[in-house]
Amino acid sequence: MTNKEEPRNIALKTSTTVAGPGYLITHDSTNNTADLVTWGETVMGISADESSRGEDNALESSGATVAFRPLGGVLMVASKASQTYTFGLPVYADDAGLVADGDDSGGSTTGKIIGLYCGEGETTTASAGDLIPVMTSVGSAN
Q1: What is the number of alpha carbons within 13 Å of residue 72 lying toward its C-beta?
Q2: Residues 6+ apart with CB under 8 A from 69
Q3: For residues 122 and 117, what is the distance between their CA atoms, to the nearest angstrom?
Q4: For 13, which DSSP code?
Q5: Is a pLDDT exceeding 80 seen at residue 20?
Q6: How close are the terminal C-alpha atoms of the chain, in Å?
Q7: What is the pLDDT of residue 98?
Q8: Largest distance between two CA atoms of the chain
Q9: 8 A C-beta contact, residue 33 and residue 62
């Protein structure tokens, strides 16, 4: 299990900057990055501080990162083999007590969502039982 108070890091969408702590973070699934929330989007977490700064001490607008605290608890969950997870991707309960990505679980019509992947970028599991970080207490669960 991961400490709820421990911030996680994620790359920001190009041209996105975070001015300080307390800003709502969402996923930009097309780029496997984070962005600031707009109306109707799923909140992944809350910024722990401002986004990264460059050598000139200005907020970076390209290649920036931000530390955030996910909503709800973050649990390390055992995955099926050969699953690819990207930031904000729904994670589904699957066979043998393991989880799967939406492509393998049959999506929301078959598997039941347990949370959202909140790793620091894309990961592919090599073996059954590989642990991935999942944000539980998801408001968009089916």
Answers
A1: 17
A2: 4, 5, 6, 7, 8, 45, 46, 48
A3: 9
A4: P
A5: yes
A6: 24
A7: 86
A8: 52
A9: no
**Eight-state DSSP code of residue 42:** P
Domain boundary assignment for the chain: 74-135
Residue 128 DSSP label: T
Tokens 């299990």 appear where? 1
- Left (φ > 0), alpha (ψ -120 to 50) or beta: where does 122 sit? beta
In 3-state terms, what secondary structure has residue 125?
coil
CB 135 within 8 A of CB 71: yes
Q: What is the C-alpha to C-alpha distance for residues 142 and 139, in angstroms, rounded to an integer?
A: 9
pLDDT tens for 24-33 read: 899 987 778 9
Could you tell me which residues come within 8 angstroms of residue 97 by beta carbon, excluding any fewer than 6 positions away?
78
- The answer, yes or no, to whether residue 120 has pLDDT greater than 70, is yes
Using alpha carbons only, what angle is made at residue 84 by residues 61 and 69, rounded to the nearest 5 degrees? 50
In terms of pTM, does the model score above 0.85? no
The values of phi and psi at residue 118, to 5°, are: -130, 35
Confidence of residue 109 (pLDDT cuts 50, 70, 90): very low
Mean pLDDT of the chain: 85
